[in-house]
């Protein structure tokens, strides 16, 4: 009889202990996230960066289409410059996006 009572108490104690450590671990992770962001080990993402990245990709694709439809030599030169500029812009924003994505601390 006493063994069953002891086991029940032990199970309740371990459950309480688990809750306590779970809450403490969540608090620790949140504090660590803030600390790392403050020290810039983890950078917060710019909310407009993703939209700028999409727009740069569209510009690049439009420049490629413009090149495909250009017929005059001057327009072909112009289109090739547009492709280069749009591609560089897209690659730059992609690199910035990859670097600035906040790292997630998982459970």
For the CA atoms, what is the radius of gyration?
A: 28 Å
Q: End-to-end distance, in Å? A: 39 Å
Major beta sheet, specifics?
none
Mean residue pLDDT: 81
SSE arrangement, N to C: HHH
- What share of residues is helical? over 70%
Q: Determine the strand fraction and express it as a percent band.
A: under 5%
Given the structure, what is the number of helices?
3
Poorly predicted runs: none
Q: Number of folding domains?
A: 2
Number of strands: 0
Shape by Cα distribution: rod-shaped
Which structural class should the secondary elements be placed in?
A: mainly alpha
Please, could you describe this protein's structure?
- This protein starts with a helix and ends in a 7-residue tail after the last helix.
- The protein folds into two domains: 1-42; 43-107.
- It is rod-shaped, with a radius of gyration of 28 Å.
- The model has no long low-confidence stretch (mean pLDDT 81).
- Helix 2 runs antiparallel to helix 3.
- It is mainly alpha-helical and 107 residues long.
- The protein has helices at residues 2-38, 49-69, 73-100.
- It is built from three helices and no strands.
- The relative contact order is 0.12.
